User: Fold Xanthine dehydrogenase small subunit from Nocardioides panzhihuensis.
Amino acid sequence: MSTPATPGVTVNGDRLPLTGVAAHTTALDWLRGRGLTGAKEGCAEGECGACSVMVARPGTTSPTEWTSVNACLVPVAALDGQEVVTSEGLGSSSDLHPVQQELAVRGGSQCGYCTPGFVCSLAAEFYRPGRVATDEACDHEHGPNGVDLHALSGNLCRCTGYRPIRDAAFALGSPEDGDALAARQQQPPPEPRPTRIAVDGAEFVRPETLTETLALLTERPEAQIVAGSTDWGVEVNLRGRRAPLVVAVDRLPELRELSFRTDYVEVGAALTLTEIERKLNGRIPLLAELFPQFASRLIRNSATIGGNIGTASPIGDAPPALLALDADVVLASPRGERVVALADYFTGYRETVRAADELIRGVRLPLPLAPLVGFHKIAKRRFDDISSVAVGYALEITDGAVVQARIGLGGVAATPLRAVATEDALVGRPWTEETVRRAAAVLAEEGTPMDDHRASASYRSAMLGQSLLRLFHTHPQTHPGRQEVPA
Assistant:
């Protein structure tokens, strides 16, 4: 591993050193400790957005994109060498940024606690490449100026109500000529660089290559692997978890590729959900249904596909959809690579077949795709919530009969799982309401659902059966054959 440069983060244009910073220190605590108190801690688990800041990240359609993230979750060491803008860096009381100005004049702030977070999330949307005004009819979630209010789906306000905030968002124009943050997007993003920070017996390490990473995992099997830190950050904040070694893999080039092959699409494990959504641009319809329902834009800006699989949570949203897509997991180690079917990957509650010296390099989605798909998430809130039950469907129907069915389930067992009995109840039978009702009764018996604070076992079972009926009534007709995916 090459010798790391002196750690530091560029904040609002000034480079600040990371001196004496513990490996578990969050960006939020570090920023506030430096006097930048605009960002607040509301929930410490990525649900309220009071801590939102902007980070310069590689763009999809521009060299750099200002991306809003939860500063309460990301370790500040993970921002070594990166560029951050806080609400203080956007404007001042005497020189307001356009986002701050619109929120002020339209009554979008009362107590002000959540306002800086709204400002940073909305500013990231203000600078989003491709945001253009439209003459088409808009709804309450999309403005005529091209603003997508889902950019604020991870920000909560308890005082003002959302109409004035929405009005401020929809009143925004485009960045003016000479806007420094807009101009910054046309320059390359900060290069990831190797990092090693050791304080009080704990280390944060960002290896330079995959080979170095795997060697480190072999040497230190107890290492905690982090990418977006949307899961580990909660463990640190709410449960006081600490690790002697944290290894960051989010910027490894080998984990950040998305490629189209003849018989599969491979998605790099360290790509964020937002990056995958934009790169695929709807070409895998089941994932296109999943993304808007996965937490919030703030979380999707950091959360990775590999991380959602790697945590092995039984209520992760991605595994049910990936199980329906018959996905494989590519595991890398010093011994080489192996490919494991996702259906065989989970072995118990938060347990998998991954060895301590292995790393999820990517996910493979076989082609062609099944034509009838659906993703149903049952939760207490429409967005920004954890599912009680999640179901992914991928069916092929020919001449009115089901010839193939794959159904992935989450929230009804200790692991995500395939609804094999229900699949058997569908395949070879006509796609009719009678068939579906019989299969729905089987689906309601799948898994081993339990009672908890999110839902009862009986409710979860009932929702499984209703989900299949919903799919049928949404797609009662037969569909064309299996779908190729254009590269």
About this structure: The chain has three domains: 1-192, 256-366, 372-478. The two ends are 36 Å apart (CA to CA).
